[in-house]
Design a protein that fits this description.
The chain is mainly alpha-helical and 120 residues long. It has one domain. It is 54% helix and 8% strand. It contains five helices and three strands. The protein has a three-stranded antiparallel sheet. A hairpin with a 5-residue loop joins β2 and β3. The longest helix is centred in the C-terminal third of the chain and has 28 residues.
Length: 120
Amino acid sequence: MDYNYPHIRTVYEHLLTHPDEHDQGTWAKCVAGHAVRLSGSDWTLVRDSRKHVDGSEVTNMRTGELRDIEDVAAELLGMDITQARGLFATDNRIAVDWLGDILAAHETIVLDQLAKEWAS
């Protein structure tokens, strides 16, 4: 699966500019929750008053399909489920750094490719 770099950047920049809205201890406010909410897709969080359950499921507003947030957020970010689960299980700082590292590695590859094109 290929990373969805534009969406990863959207989530990353949102978390950097709104750290008060980021809480890896609850699905609704973790990277997964932000990936769903900021995607502009038909998916929406299923709300629950219990902190660790709130947002653990999402529903497709068009089809009514109900799925685990991990699976949908992984797809939206372009990550395999194993990597996404690792990201979603970290603390706030590590999660933001992880997204930043993905973007930095991508930018390095793009810049290297451009440099090779200019050199030829």
